[in-house]
Amino acid sequence: MDASFWLESWRDGGTKTSFHRRDVHPFATRYLPAHELAGKRVFVPCCGKDNVLNYFRDNAAHVVGVDLARSAIEEYMADNGIALDEVEPGRFEGDGITLLARDLFALTADDLGAIDIVWDRASLIAFPDEGPDSLRQRYIRKMHDLLSPGARILLVTLEYGPIMPEPPFSVDPATVRGYFAEGFAVDHILDDAQPNHRMVEKFGLRFFSEHAFEMTRRGEKRHDGARTRELVAA
Length: 234
Hints:
This protein has 234 residues and is of the alpha/beta class. 29% of the residues lie in helices and 29% in strands.
């Protein structure tokens, strides 16, 4: 799987991009309520045109979304009747929101600015894990690199069987802990079995659950003269 898979998915549309909800995912409002978002900067990797961007734009200090497909960002603007300013190629800015039409793996901390919270419903489960240099392993390393101590990730994964060869991939709680326990405090906060989920009938699944995790970047900050150095637990 490479970039062409996602670009073609957005070009074709239909069921290939039907993972976008028309409402705001209930895990976002339950575990990231509006009062906790005040003054926070939120990052949404693989944001597509998801309506959760509006929730964060309205309640957080700022939301930054990134998607490889420029068309996803254009569809977001068209669907919501807004025009963001393209301040530089692939960088769209508006009141309370920045959208980047860029390769997630090429992002730096300077591209994002300080991030307090990450909402990941469509990133980890979108990438295959085929070894140490797989897209999923690269994504995990990128999250370790981009986030400072104290930053939180609200991660949503799916677990189902039988396993399917294409996204969204099944990722169980033990696997999540294995991915992140070294650099994050991982709290599995919900196992939501959904026997009537549309994927069960569509793909002939035996079971389907949606999991939520709250993960906090480990480490501590200390002042060294005029500079602040971040020490992250390895």
